[in-house]
Amino acid sequence: DTGVSQDPRHKITKRGQNVTFRCDPISEHNRLYWYRQTLGQGPEFLTYFQNEAQLEKSRLLSDRFSAERPKGSFSTLEIQRTEQGDSAMYLCASSLKRATNEKLFFGSGTQLSVL
Amino acid sequence: DAKTTQPPSMDCAEGRAANLPCNHSTISGNEYVYWYRQIHSQGPQYIIHGLKNNETNEMASLIITEDRKSSTLILPHATLRDTAVYYCIVRVGVGSGNTGKLIFGQGTTLQVKP
Hints:
The structure holds 2 protein chains of 2 kinds. Chain A is mainly β. In chain A, 0% of the residues lie in helices and 49% in strands. In chain A, strands 2, 4, 5, 6, 9, 10 and 11 form a 7-stranded mixed beta sheet that branches. Chain B has a 5-stranded mixed beta sheet with strand order 1-9-8-3-4, with no helix packed on it. In chain B, strands 2-7-6-5 form a 4-stranded antiparallel beta sheet, with no helix packed on it.
């Protein structure tokens, strides 16, 4: 168990640029989640995949945001035409689908700063 | 999923037990209580979960009231490294509609002081 890995850890970009983040989940986990967290707030759910299928998207996920998980393994989150309001920590989590005690394992996040 | 209410902040002396309360008065019969914590600059970390019975693991104990409307997370001997934001979350645990996602509130910031 090498844990959930996110890359990069920090990203600084200018307003209007596109950015892409990568998440590598725990290898046998079939579910993958993206969250966003701003200072002083709890993480907010963005979207979730089961294998390669994106099964749920939050209303927070505007049309400038797109997430993929092409082979049911790693995932990418792209933000197009970044805005200053996109500045946040982007967290990825993975889990193994279970009936009861499903636990989410989180990465350390990607801190995005939009100037 | 049911909403939870937690105090925004608490202090605890190092070496003492930290008791973190959580109210979830609208919890449904098939919803579990989960606790996660988030240390500064890290992602949330699973601590413990339960349905009806009290639970204990190497990190903490979870006490759920008989009516299930509230619970308490107990860190038996708090250390400085336990300083973190603690989130109490209720989530359905069974059924085909379970996505597994967690809905976080603002949690309780626990400050362990020397």
